Amino acid sequence: MLINWHAPRHVYLVCGKTDLRKGIDGLAIVIAENYGLELYDDSLFLFCGFRNDRFKGLYWDGEGFILLYKRYENGHLKWPRTSSEARLLKRQELANLLKGLNPFPTPNVHKAKPGNLY
Fold it and tell me: Which residue among 3, 43, 80, 117 is the one 20 to 30 A from 67 at the CA level?
């Protein structure tokens, strides 16, 4: 589990900023009270604080919680900050996040200027 981020059946990204001083109990309370998700359902929950170069993960392995902490020496994460929700990540979105890419890219659509249609 400590190396294979794709092993859990569900991976949730908690958008926004989380106080990373929280430990296992504090992060579990965040999930239970704010999002109503099942903590014991083979799910990994990812949290990011104010700095984009580190995040924490909370995972129940069947016997107890594992608290993961990852810090990038070079680079940073593209963590969604605009909402306070827990989003279920697909495998490719998780791979993008761990590479430092935006897991939820939004297409850039430029408005056409009047008169420049052809």
Answer: 80
